[in-house]
Design goal:
The protein is mainly β. Helices cover 10% and strands 33% of the residues. Strands 1, 2, 3 and 4 form a four-stranded antiparallel beta sheet that branches. Strands 5-6 form a two-stranded antiparallel ribbon. The radius of gyration is 16 Å and the shape is extended.
Amino acid sequence: MADQQSPRAHFVADPIHLPDGRTVCVSAYPDGGIHFSVDGLPYVLTEACLSGNPEKDRATLKISPGRQGSNASYNYTDWLEEKNSK
């Protein structure tokens, strides 16, 4: 497994630059997979809705920074509030 190469993305969206300086990147792969990456770790998965009727529903993933629902050691939300208040 370790010697297998990851498939090359066949689509890479332009990066989304958030007002606080973080960047969101999205790539799509030939096998139907989608890769999301976001700066400003750590994040925790706070919502995942991945099943249902594919004709009517959509997959939803929500990640939240810091300790929102977790024991993450660094609270990004506090840092972000402090940064935005300056």
